[in-house]
Amino acid sequence: MRIKCPLCGERDLREFTYRGAALPRPAPDAPDEAWDAYLHLRDNPAGPTRDLWHHRAGCSAWLVVRRDTATHEIFGVELATRSRAVRA
Amino acid sequence: MRVDGRGLVDRTRPVRFSFDGRFYEGYQGDTLASALLANGVRLFGRSFKYHRPRGVFTAGSEEPNALVTVGRGAEQTPNIRATVQEIFAGLEARSQNRWPSLKYDLLAANDVLSPFLSAGFYYKTFMWPRSFWEKLYEPLIRRAAGLGALSGAPDRGVYDTAWANCDVLVVGAGPAGLSAALTAARSGLDVLLVDENPAPGGRLTGEDELIDGAPATDWVADVAAQLAGLKNVRVMCRTTVTGVFDHGTFSALQRSATHVPDPGDAPLEVFWRIVAKACVLCTGALERPIAFPGNDRPGVMLAGAVRRYLHQYGVAAGTRVAVFTNSDDGRKTADDLRAAGVDVVALVETRAGVKPGPDHPTFVGSTVTATRGRLGLREIRVEGAGGSQWIKADCLAVSGGWNPTLHLASHTGARPVWNAAIASFVPSPGALLGFEVAGAAAGVFSTKGAIKSGRYRAKLILEGLGAKVPRQGSVEADDTPPSAVAFWQVPAKGRAWIDLQNDVTVKDVELAARENYASAEHMKRYTTLGMAPDQGKSSNVLAMAVLAAQTGRSIAQTGTTTFRPPYSPVAIGAMGANGKGRRFAAERLTPSHQAALDRGAPMVEVGLWLRPSYFPRTGETTWRQSCDREVAMVRKAVGVSDVSTLGKIEVHGKNAAQFLDFVYTNKMSSLKVGRARYGLMLREDGFVMDDGTCARIGRDRYVLTTTTAAAGAVMAHLEFVQQVLRPDWDLRLLSATDHWAQLAVTGPAALETVNHLLDQPISREELPFMGHRQAQIGGVDGRIFRISFSGELGFELAVPARFGDSLFRLAVAHAETLGGGAYGMEALNVLRLEKGFLTHAEINGRVTADDLGLGRMLSPDKDFVGKRMATRPGLVAARREQLVGLRPVGAVKALSAGARLFEPGAGICHENMQGAVTSAAFSPTLGHFIGLALLEGGRNRMGETIRVLERLRGLDTLCEVVSPVFFDPDGGRMRG
Fold first, then answer.
1. How far is B728 from chain A (nearest CA, A)?
2. Does the predicted interface ipTM exceed a cut of 0.95?
3. Do A12 and B249 touch (CB under 8 A)?
């Protein structure tokens, strides 16, 4: 698997560390259900996903990767700092 | 037998080698198989299950039968395909799976028992009594069945791994691959051509065809020369692409030195990872056998292999050769042999309508229905409309058509599709982005077709990459259309093999179908068909045809089993190259590493770091003596320890203070410049992640320390918080762990040693506890912190890493003049235990701040990572395990970490377990063992007696629950 880091270009999978679904952090006073969902509940789809990867053996950028878990196609990679996916 | 005037081997260079202890001679360019066939050897090994005599079946990497062990002792490699292994002077090969000898194998009794050993027999037969399976049946079956054996000794062979990148990868250097590579190369792109044979040419080296009126081998040499002349082309021979992975990643095994007598320091094999923008698969085709009774005897071979032995190696596979075929390929085999002067005794044609050839005794509309010969083929029975007869033959060339080699095209999940025109499966077109399949691999079998296909598919790739497409002239070569008539099995009584390597017969597949293992995948697992090292390369399509016939489905409906990497076997030694022994993981050394070694310190692994365990002195014979002495040294004088391994992270920027308030549970924004504070970080789920100190070195500049083990994880976490949770804050993070050498100087006399090292001496008042400042140390800009992990007056001196070695030597030398010296990890651990300071033995991922007695550090005034979840009911429950100290009641040999805690008198069962010891050591300061433990409701149980049990070490003792701070509870020694 290859991920195209917006800063470094296309790199091999082993430079990256997977974290999990790219989700916005709930507000401190959000209901318990929102926090439970943020920390524990995952969809595990066979299809398109949006998840966080850390280019740990590269530039240290956190990335939001849109990909398909069934076909392994990667639709797009963006810096987490610029991603709406992780904004509340 | 060698045939004069044929073959590409170098007859001026004889090569001597041995097989089963006997010496033979071949020529440079021979494989073990061709050289032995030339010497009249037909028997190569015994089969997996029935121990049937077996000989060479193919001339390539798909070989199911001729597996041998090469080398001796630790260097021996089992299951080497004799058809792939090139001979070299001194090569030593042995047959496998036979005892006492290849000719007389006692386990051949299995063959007589074969009616009882059908597919799934062990599931049915060895079910009772149940306990016998593991102890008796399975070991027996495993001993009886099998292939080669490992030496059992560590492999001393050298292996390597490597990466390659290219624009266009061409797999296979036959007519299609050479054409594709040349087309791509002329566009100027970076081209990598990979082929598993020692030289390019593919099928053309095994035939005597003409291209443009000249021998095809001339055309091969010409294209190879053109490629060699281009700087943008690399050609890798003896290299098998073994796997295709996502996004243009490939694995390949290069047999770089398995063909030379003495590889020296060169790796035997190199495991490659290749990254390509696009790929043309030109992997050719594999000939398929026909299933007929007795089709496994040595001497029964694929027709294409018989031709290759003749044309490439100049070897006649027999003296009286019969051919059994359903296509013109058989006719060609017979013609080639006859032209070389080999006696062709029969051409058996399954097709009734073809004209008998004038040159050979031909039997049209006939089949081979039986064979004879104990250790090799002696005669065959030919049956047709005109009756049957036995014909003497020592070689039977069989051709049932060709199957495209579509394994690589299917590795990422694309299912092959049935192509009725060639009666075989082909790769599903366009299934892989950036891939084209050309030549025989795509079902284009003629030479002219393959060349055109290679050029055309390369052109599509070039267009896709936006490269210019070169013009190419026309080519004249064989253009025979493929045969569309399939013939799978001879309907005759007797055992007909499909998978030779795993000894699976037509009967086994029929049995599987009858017992409703009717899907391709179920049948495979029930019969083990295609599960041997050759992965059923020759047998797969035939097996599907037999299964289809049994289940009343078409072959297209039956489908194939799943193709998975590797295409051919890869030694673990090659995949794991550079990962053995000390190379298993990176090794990090402290700045004082050499200085510690000079003092005789044994090293202990701490994460990736090597740290000194203790510093032995004359007369000390055990680590405990050194450790106790070092602890006393720190408590009474001064000790020096390299603590550079602690993670050091600098946080700079306008929002640095705000950021630290968010990642630490306590406030760091209120910290004054020149001061440091103990800090705690939580994970977002509310559990403790790490602890450390945070020092403010400027208005917008902080430096934090993390524990050694968590340095990387904390840095990743901070980057996550910064980039994902708080991207709008203005700050920068810098990992400075390796930049600074940091020495702890601690003990009542620490200030004397520190002042000896500092250019400007300081007093306790000038640098109070948890204070820090810039300092000149021996003329070098550094930092001094007044922090302590021992509970004594303590300083940490930081200098750029390159000065660490000399600072350590100077500090230790001075400490020694005061009755102190260096101390290692053992003493460091005892010192922190006596003070109840934490490590990741306590911060084990399941503890909350309150569990550790640090509940007050959760600031109520601000949001921070983990705050919300730290208040979950489960995380504040009263019966949670809390940190306590343990002191043995009465004498005890040793407390040990991991021991479980029970109420005295309670039953020893999981339900009654109340916690566990996290750390334990002998305290020389207190004169007894001490331990830290997590105990249910522990803080309210001070003074209680608890049973401490560790059965592995035979520990069963009573301890008193005490405060986790054993020594100097008010901290006067380090604060004063």
1. 8
2. yes
3. yes
